[in-house]
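Sequence in, structure out.
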Amino acid sequence: MEFLLAFPASSFVALSSFLVFIYCLLWISRSNRLYSKGLRLPPEAGGAWPLLGHLPLFGGTKPPHVVLGNLADKYGPIFTIKMGVHRTAIVSSWELAKECLTTNDKVFANRPKMLMSEILGYNYAMVGFSPYGHYWRQIRKIATLELLSTHRLKTFRHIRESEARAGLKEIYELWNKNKSSSDENKVMLEMKKWFGDIALNVIYRIIVGKRYVGNTSSNEAEEDDPWRDSIRKWFELAGKFAVSDAIPSLRWLDLGGIEKAMKNTMKELDYYVQKWLEEHKRKRVSREVKGDEDFMDVMLSIVEDTAEDFANHDTDTSIKATCLALIMAASDTTTVTLTWGLSLLLNNRDVLQKAQQELDTHIGRERLPNESDMKNLVYLQAIIKETLRLSPAAAMTVTHESLAECTAGGYHIPAGTRLFVNLWKVHHDPRIWPDPDKFKPERFLTTHKDFDIKGGNFEYIPFSSGRRMCPGFLFASQNMQLTMATLLHGFEISTTSDEMVDLGENFGTTNLRFSKLQVHLTPRLPLHLYQQND
């Protein structure tokens, strides 16, 4: 450090300029070698800065997927940008997405090394950030078979139903309390938190065998909740740009203090997850585990039965990383999508009324929805699908990285190239989606009725596709449908003074996060239904 302080500023500038010059020469030399071999590279977007590459393009007010979508209009469905020292391919059409995630699926199955994956992902132990290989296949197989398979999801049906009804009862009790203390026949509620509490309670019970126990009735609840606060910080930090990801040699500077903040946040989260793990271990030793095991119990059983070492990670880290990853993914994605979907309904009241008419037709007003009703609610399913089209859970895929050289769109893709598929751009392609910016659920009942979320229709891949697609798509779909059906069936919903919802966007790792969505709710069913115990 003393050496750096004594180093003349002019010499530092000269050294930096020299390094930038050498870097540019190496990049040009590498590109020339590829061209000399007759290998045609994808077009590179203009406007790159020395060393920083195209990073300055993302410093404005437009979100990244819109910036990249505009570049696609100019450079085509596949082009490259420089994210610092890293060549990154951007794919913006369903045809190229299909080629990259089918023909070249294994080539692009890797994840790059990034600061957030290392620190926020338990040193790459979280399955979504793990490099392609034995450990990733091992953990994904466990999660799929023991949690996300169709058979296992059926066994969790009672959890989803009971938590949706508990949320319904909670709103009723708030309404009843408000009605007793004022002349208002409605109650105001912040919906993002309500959706979040249901999602957290469902996944908590499945993963660690206990409820999260949200408290919608308290305006201070979220602020006084250290766990929720830690989750919020995790997602904020995961969505922030770390200079060291673009220029690894600058990591030691920790510009912006991001690395320090990540370490502090993970220390907070790990405190809770470690406590859950210790509780589960004590119960197993004392043989208190009876009846249905939760997912953490299952992982402990697998470790005990097979003496599995989980490759390069110790068993405790693997279990904690997997359980935390599933909790984060299941709760955040569901909450964001439901909040976005309800906002779209409030801005399209005719669609909201049609959804409630469908619920009245197939369920009536003398009972609450069950999960078995969902197959008959085709218009509600179309609403969820259209919400995911307009605003997929992530506007772009998580970063892929090529393990070997390949060809895509007739272009040569060198090994080590990073890849983003701009899902937002694919889902707004006017060739496939007439009036792409309009909220029209009917399209999934007519022209696009055969499109599903399983990743086979590349014109519509809200959960991505291929080896690295989100394995929890069915879990998310079931949770969102039942929660939305229960809410729309149970209450008349409106905004203050019936104004439109502001759909301004705040981008992190998921496409959209609302700070608040305040709505008025009034019961629309016989009051005794809200008081039923599960």
